[in-house]
Design goal:
single chain; alpha+beta; OB fold (Dihydrolipoamide Acetyltransferase, E2P); 35% strand
Length: 266
């Protein structure tokens, strides 16, 4: 396939990682009306000029082509210079009604079903409602600082990207959702959260002087467990798998409008 034009509603964006070709890059997932979920990688988001940077639930138009070494369905390599934001973010009015019109038709029955479909067809992205969110766990990363190899990637200069940013901060912890999905045979899931917003929350806490791991963990749990996954929220997870480990899925982001019962009470 050659270069094609696509338009998609952005739903998730991962925290950046070192990139061999771009210095650093994020994985972005959006919804295309005629394709469903679409993965765009790599996106050097922090290096994009301001007019090309997009928010979640904004509509963007860009040119893409098949990736060099990624066989996952609906995965494309972007032509970064072609990115254009064409519509402002969908609002959360009326309990996220406009957003629901995009995402709810793509809901799967469970995480277990998504994993089974991955084995059958190679499915690599999904959206589902967990039956019970049990906890957000925190573990220290084995490497607290970037390796020499990663530093070499991050220090690359791109003559087409002139925007200067502070060096990418390595997250010293890994956070994971522990939950049970609605599949009758589910034995539980414990999956990493790679949402950009979680990384930004950690960086905000650090700027405020929080250094104690227990306090950091409690603040992360307060937001991503007790607020986002509160009993009055109709929580759904966006999920995607890893290129090198296709059976391993990550939590890419959370969709969390109020439950309809709670809205009726309001």
């Amino acid at each position: 396939m050659g270069v094609i034009d696509i338009e998609l509603l952005i739903v998730v964006k991962s925290y950046p990682n070192p990139s061999q070709s771009l210095g650093e890059a994020s994985c972005v997932v959006g919804i295309c009306k005629d394709r469903g979920f679409v993965r765009i990688y790599p996106i050097p988001f922090r290096k994009l000029e301001d007019e090309k940077q997009f928010a979640k639930y904004e509509t963007v138009r860009l040119q893409v082509q098949d990736p060099r070494n990624d066989p996952r369905p609906n995965t494309f390599r972007p032509q970064v210079e072609s990115i254009r934001v064409v519509e402002q973010p969908l609002t959360t009015k009326d309990n996220w009604r406009l957003r629901k019109e995009w995402v709810m038709p793509l809901v799967s029955t469970s995480m277990c079903e998504i994993q089974r479909e991955q084995e059958r067809s190679g499915l690599s992205m999904g959206f589902f409602k967990p039956a019970e969110v049990i906890d957000v766990t925190q573990e220290e990363e084995d490497q607290k600082e970037w390796s020499a190899k990663d530093l070499a990637k991050l220090e690359q200069k791109d003559f087409f990207m002139t925007k200067e940013n502070k060096p990418l901060e390595k997250l010293p912890y890994k956070w994971r959702y522990r939950y049970r999905c609605s599949d009758p045979d589910c034995t539980g899931h414990h999956q990493s959260i790679i949402d950009w917003e979680l990384g930004q929350l950690y960086r905000t806490l650090k700027r405020k002087g929080l250094t104690d791991p227990k306090e950091i963990h409690e603040k992360i749990r307060e937001k991503f467990l007790h607020e986002i996954c509160a009993p009055d929220r109709d929580v759904h997870f966006f999920t995607g798998n890893m290129l090198k480990h296709p059976k391993d899925f990550l939590i890419l982001g959370v969709f969390w409008p109020r439950t309809e019962q709670q809205m009726q009470l309001l």
